[in-house]
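Budget justification aside, the reviewers requested a transparent look at the raw inputs and outputs of the sequence design task funded under Objective 1. We therefore reproduce one unedited record. The lines immediately below are the structure tokens for a 72-residue chain.
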């Protein structure tokens, strides 16, 4: 098995695959929020079903700026 970082891959599709998966995950969260449906995620290696309310809270926590993101 190859353990090199994806960013060093020769294939541009492979190099950008992590960004594509992150965009797809963000879109899935947004659709779940809009349609008020549950969302299945993997958290620390276990599957978890997020209720529509938990999806909203999860989205809010992802969008909150951290202290180091705030400009002075």
């Amino acid at each position: 098995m190859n353990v090199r970082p994806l960013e060093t891959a020769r294939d541009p599709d492979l190099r950008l695959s992590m960004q594509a998966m992150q965009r797809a995950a963000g879109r899935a969260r947004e659709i779940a929020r809009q349609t008020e449906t549950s969302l299945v995620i993997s958290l620390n290696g276990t599957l978890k079903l997020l209720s529509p309310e938990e999806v909203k809270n999860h989205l809010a926590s992802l969008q909150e700026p951290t202290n180091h993101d705030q400009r002075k």
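The chain has one domain: 6-69. The radius of gyration is 16 Å. Computational costs for records of this kind are itemized in the attached budget.
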